[in-house]
Amino acid sequence: AQSVAQPEDQVNVAEGNPLTVKCTYSVSGNPYLFWYVQYPNRGLQFLLKYITGDNLVKGSYGFEAEFNKSQTSFHLKKPSALVSDSALYFCAGSYQLTFGKGTKLSVIP
Amino acid sequence: EAQVTQNPRYLITVTGKKLTVTCSQNMNHEYMSWYRQDPGLGLRQIYYSMNVEATDKGDVPEGYKVSRKEKRNFPLILESPSPNQTSLYFCASRRQFYPTDTQYFGPGTRLTVL
Questions:
Q1: Which end of chain B, N or C, is less surrounded by CB atoms within 10 Å?
Q2: Alpha carbons A104 and A9: distance in angstroms, whole number
Q3: Residue B93 has pLDDT above 70, yes or no
Q4: Residue B50's CB: how many other CB atoms inside 10 A?
């Protein structure tokens, strides 16, 4: 069984600053981990995924995520936040795609 | 264009009145699933289907039915809706034999049950 957790309900960051949205996972076997973003009144859009290989995964819109096996984490990062990055972010994992509860990111101008 | 479509996008109904939310994908995907999204709870899987005539319960199947008679369609049926089924519903699909493939989501259906 696999589960994911997002420990922060909300993250606030100033425009231009680096951002991190946290995700931890619990899994038996190989983890399959995904990040999705949901803009207001929109569906879910795929950002990136980790299956195997390099621990640093690059995705859409300048986002990247770092897989850390020892800390069982898969944090989403971006070097310089934009106001347009404000959205709801979901970490997800496993064959049946179990989702975390979501983190609302607000980028302040 | 590859896409997952859902209809209707918005629906207001009353308790007990049967309804169906349709889902269709044009990517020839074997695997399809339904989720509901509620504030503070994230997305929870209702039902999934690995192929035609093969469906199974997800985490929150109570009060819902599904069918998969054709590969492209996966309707969600609420036989007797109740107010606790007021939610935002998403349909998704991906290739079955590639579990690491990305799931593609529909635009969502916002359901209100009065």
A1: N
A2: 6
A3: yes
A4: 15
